[in-house]
Design goal:
By secondary structure, the protein is α/β, with parallel strands linked by helices. It contains 16 helices and twelve strands. It folds into three domains: 142 residues, Cobalamin-binding domain (Rossmann fold); 162 residues, Glycogen Phosphorylase B (Rossmann fold, 3-Layer(aba) Sandwich), CATH 3.40.50; 70 residues, no CATH class. The strands form two sheets. A six-stranded parallel β-sheet has the order 2-1-3-4-5-6, sandwiched between helices. Helix 1 packs across helix 16, helix 2 packs parallel to helix 3 and helix 10 packs across helix 14. The protein is globular, with a radius of gyration of 22 Å. The relative contact order is 0.14.
Length: 386
């Protein structure tokens, strides 16, 4: 078996390559940074020329690439994608149904939804790059620069929801606000798509036709992501506003919000070289999941634990399957509990250190890249015998 690993500026790449070497899999890498994952003739031609040599049995990528799927289909070569985004940011899902394609998703709830629509999606949790992150040293100067009581690394999700809500009548606006308010209050359950009816989408597009002369139309997936992002924006704003009124809070993000004037705004940090230092030096690292992640464990949680950091996260169903809650990771179910837990663990350093040590040991054991890649490669061998 020989594998072609398409790389871009993604996360997880180092862990995947290390796993392939440990598993003694022969592979080549092919780096190409795309602007449009669904239309790129140059990329398709370069991939075609590599596959035409006949030396590869499988193409692998982090996140799903529909162009790779279509090219592999023509060459009868297996394509496997391991996805850390939720949802996947492509418009046309049809290539996911190609015979030689299979995508692995970390969110079991999302997998079930894809399978209902005839897509051969498979569940596979993400992995923790302990070897990379735990080995990164922090100097005294860096400790002074990055340390905080509480930190969040991530987006504020500044959305275009106000612009899309403006043309709607009072009933549709109120309906959207109502379902967002309800979903925002629920941890461990995701019902947003159930309330996005065909009739609602039709009325929204009728309003956009009138306001914007038909230049913009939306589908259910797009509205779902817009609302989920807006819920996450509001939730992150509320949490950061509350905590920064009482604690030393640092936000590492490319986004900014002038209303969050009591926290320390920091620029977004490099994933491999700086982010682990933030996790190591923050007493508490927040995870506030994007609402489209239905049940799964986001990569951010695993990154924090792999760095030897303490995690305080919203509850996700799969966290209870893989971790001992309260012993390896701490979760909250509402804003009041979040504040209580933050205050408690800032005052109980020894408990905090014990929990983060337990969390690190858990990801070392159960979230290894070589185990995940072995599963993917064995699936290919079983189906194609290559």
């Amino acid at each position: 078996m020989k594998l072609l690993f398409w790389q871009w500026h993604s996360f997880m790449g180092k862990g995947v390559e290390r796993a392939l070497r440990k598993l003694e899999v022969e592979y080549d890498t092919f780096f190409y940074q795309m602007k449009d994952w669904e239309e790129d003739e140059i990329f398709a031609e370069q991939l075609e020329s590599r596959l035409a040599t006949g030396q590869y049995n499988i193409v692998f990528s982090i996140n799903f690439n529909p162009i790779i799927s279509e090219v592999c289909e023509m060459h009868h070569i297996a394509y496997r994608a391991w996805v850390y985004d939720s949802p996947i940011h492509i418009r046309n899902l049809t290539p996911l149904k190609n015979t030689y394609t299979k995508a692995y998703f970390f969110d079991r709830g999302q997998v079930l939804e894809y399978q209902k629509n005839g897509i051969a999606a498979e569940y596979l949790p993400l992995a923790a790059d302990v070897e990379t992150f735990s080995s990164i040293a922090v100097s005294e100067q860096e400790r002074k620069e990055y340390q905080s009581e509480i930190s969040l690394v991530g987006q504020l999700y500044q959305t275009v929801y106000p612009q899309y809500a403006a043309p709607l009548d009072a009933y549709e606006k109120g309906y959207l606000e109502g379902i967002m308010a309800a979903q925002k209050m629920v941890y461990g359950g995701y019902f947003l798509p159930d309330f996005l009816t065909d009739d609602l989408i039709r009325k929204m597009n009728a309003a956009y036709q009138k306001a914007w002369n038909g230049n913009i139309a939306v589908n259910k997936r797009e509205v779902e992501f817009l609302l989920a992002s807006e819920i996450t924006r509001r939730e992150r704003f509320e949490i950061l506003s509350l905590l920064s009124n009482h604690f030393d809070v640092a936000l590492y993000s490319g986004d900014n919000d002038a209303h969050l004037n009591k926290l320390r705004h920091k620029s977004y940090v490099d994933y491999y070289s700086v982010m682990p230092k933030v996790f190591k030096t923050s007493a508490i690292n927040l995870n506030i999941s994007l609402k489209t992640i239905r049940t799964g464990i986001p990569l951010r949680i695993l990154d924090i634990l792999a760095s030897g950091g303490f995690v305080l996260s919203n509850f996700q169903e799969e966290l209870a399957e893989y971790f001992k809650l309260g012993e390896e990771i701490i979760t909250y179910g509402d804003l009041e509990e979040l504040y209580y837990l933050a205050d408690y663990y800032l005052k109980h350093e020894e408990e905090r250190k014990c929990i983060l040590a337990n969390g690190l040991e858990r990801v070392k054991k159960d979230f290894r890249f070589e185990d995940r890649m072995r599963k993917i490669l064995e699936d290919v061998l079983t189906k194609f015998g290559c």
